[in-house]
Input
Amino acid sequence: MENFTPVSGLIGGMLIGLSAVMLMLFNGRIAGISGIASGLLARPSSDTAWRAAFVIGVLAAPALYGIATGPVDIALAGGPALLAVAGFIVGLGSSLGSGCTSGHGVCGLARLSPRSLVATAVFMTTAFATVFIARHLLGA
Amino acid sequence: MTSSPTSTSRTNVAAVGTALAAGLVFGLGLTISGMINPAKVLGFLDLFGAWDPTLAFVMGGAVLVTLPGFRLLRRRGAPVFSQMFRFPTRSDIDPRLVGGSALFGVGWGLAGFCPGPALAALGAGIGGAALSGSGVTAVAVFVAAMLAGLAVPRLLPTGGPRTTSPAPTRQDG
Output
């Protein structure tokens, strides 16, 4: 547990929650990243502008934060081939499953949605299993 | 809607501005929490390694705000710059939800990236502060593949992410 950072985790998490409450308060929308990003891939509609604005914010904040405070730690788990495969699976899975860690995990759990509770339990389980197999059985 | 065209377009501009602000807060939260770093996420997902419980504190911190936040909002009746709160209404558990979530977890476990952090890491990389050139490219590869994966269900004959009529409640997340 040498890398355990509960305070910054809690503060960052509360900001994520605040963002979700802001988007619902002002725009009436759930802050689910996969849903918002996948909406941007659909035909342009009256929702395109706010979705694009939200995604631009998600991209811009870490860029500005890095410029203000210095390099942020980002250690990738593998090379481009692994990331391409994983990225495709993440996109496909969250699209089929109607959400990811933000929509189901944060917003859905807060609504005590049965769909989100199941989705979160399922993706947590397969993620734990995947890491166990990759790291401890295959030794990657 | 009795508002004039001018006030409607002002409302639209305001709604885009608030979405941008919410996105900035979201990206900041991902950065401060460390979730922008796949190694940190994988540290949580690796129960039998040097386990790092931080991700649980991030999720907990977020729900600590959204749970009372959403409850207060429901009492309010309507959002500031939109006509209605679009809380998802579906409650059925179908194979698509379970299978899709299972698949998502596998991809998440492989890379340590889920959609929000991947976009945030790409932003950090573009900002030049966090990653080497090849690193930015690798994150861009993940994001491009993720967008392709997100688009695939829309191309299937069964239709894309299920649109529940009549209101566009769409996705949960």
